[in-house]
Amino acid sequence: MVRPDPGSFRDPASHVVFHEGRVLRLFDERGLEAWRALSTAPFFSRETAAGRIIESTPVEDPTGTAAGAVEHPRLPLITYPYEWTFGMLKDAALLQLDLLEEALRDGFTIKDATPFNIQFRNGRPVFIDMGSFEPYRKGEPWIGYRQFTRQFLFPLLMHAWAGIPFQPWLRGDPEGPTAAQMRSILRGRKRLNTAALLHVRLQARMEDRLRGSAVRSELRTAGFNAELIIANVRRLRKLVASLAPHPSGAGWAGYQECAHVGRDRDTKSEFLEQILDGGHFTTVLDLGANDGHFSRIAARKGALAVAVDGDEAVLDRLHDSIAGQPIAVVLADLTNPSPSLGWRLAERPGLWERVDPDLVIAYGLIHHLIYTASIPPTSVLDWLREFDCPVALEFVTPDDEMVEVLTANKEEPELHPGRTEAEFRSLLDGRFKVESERPLGGGARILFHLIPA
Amino acid sequence: MSIFGYLDAGSGSLLLQAILGGLAGIAVAFRAFKSRITGKKAVDEAIASTADEPEQVTEGS
User: Which positions in chain B touch A232 (Cβ < 8 Å)?
Assistant: First the structure.
């Protein structure tokens, strides 16, 4: 059975379908013609071999309706820009610019510029939308410039220059801020920066003045050419490469290695390794992954580790140090993960619809959900049970010093039942079976290997 | 139908690219703007206000 990818429909020339576990891109006549030309372009072969463009293999069209088809390797996890760290969006932006310049030099262009065309594979960005490449027509400007500024440049600028995280904005509006909105966001000396004057203020002004005007034929007649796009792309590349997270941005300045993060790490690692050695795990979901210590263990054992955390600074460091390991970084607040978004609420599925783990790590996590976020312990366990796989869980009793810190300003009636060891064990009944357990910190904390009941 | 038809590129953003292409681009922009009666005035104003007196550009103008 052929199932269309609900996120691939905007371009009439090609779209993605799933067929018997395979990922296929189907072309219409125009898309097929572009693909044939593209497949002979030197940059395309070079960048595909380098892993910066996803591999494509011509195949028979199983639907019999398309003019042609190629197969792509299936990526184990799809993530979206609102789940990326600053460094990830920056890496994606640089890839987009590099590929555009190389394409132009070989007589092609990229007709759009959206981070949704880029995914991360073992920490490195890979361009996944073959349909975006088109032969360059003499005199054409870069059609994707405005989209590049809204979905790459402005989100990075608002993060780097104004200290405003881009993820909530992109989650609310995946099209990204307009130039006019960006003009309102930038304050102080940054407003007078050359890049701000040109890409933000002048663009906002010209968009306003020239709305609806047909300008492409005039540009062509006036001698516009690919070299002008390349000059712009090179300046943009230099600008993007120079950007760093704003030091006062949430989570960046205050981040410090916390002593409790490393507590009993050896015992917890050993406990996890025993679980991993006892089975074959393809996808390990590390909830509250922090610096990715346990994700690395899972990756070393051959699984894809999905490292989820809400702390952007710590995840950005993890992203920088993945170096080809099978670790997927996902920035998410576990109490408010990415919902389904877009057209018919199917275009961008919610986070948990995209992750299918066969082991969940919940170390140093549930006491934050229970005490900080006031999630009832029953609900925490129901949620973990929904993953329908074993869980390596650290339970923290009310006697633990961390809990004393978390409850310093809370009184008993403000806390949910199910927090004591006895209560927690009774809540496990019917949900999970305890496969093994190990006390930590003199019994104030317990490691559980849980199997779905 | 345009090969790029599914994406709205924005007229102002397209013309801006000539300016962003550097000196050679500004010459192209000038030639393109010359053929526009209204556009010439608007863009000349935009360039002048941004290059010379950026603090004079008011929000929403």
Answer: 17, 20-21, 25
For residue B48, the distance in angstroms to the closest alpha carbon of chain A comes to 10
C-alpha A328: how far from its chain's center? 8
Total residue count of chain A as it appears in this document: 453
User: In angstroms, rounded to a whole number, what is the distance separating the alpha carbons of residues A123 and A194?
Assistant: 32
Q: What is the DSSP letter of A193?
A: S
Sequence-distant (≥ 6) Cβ neighbours of residue A367 within 8 angstroms: A396, A400, A402, A403, A406
Interface of A with B in 121-180 (CB under 8 A): 134, 137, 140-147, 149, 179-180
Of A106-115, A382-391, A435-444, B2-11, the range with the lowest mean pLDDT is B2-11
Question: What pTM value is reported for the model?
Answer: 0.91
What is the β-pairing status of strands A304-309 and A283-287?
parallel
Q: Which residues contact A288 (CB under 8 A, 6 or more apart)?
A: A308, A309, A334, A362, A363, A364, A365, A368
**Cα→Cα distances A260→A26, A102, A420, Å:** 51, 48, 21
Mean pLDDT of the region A275-293 = 96
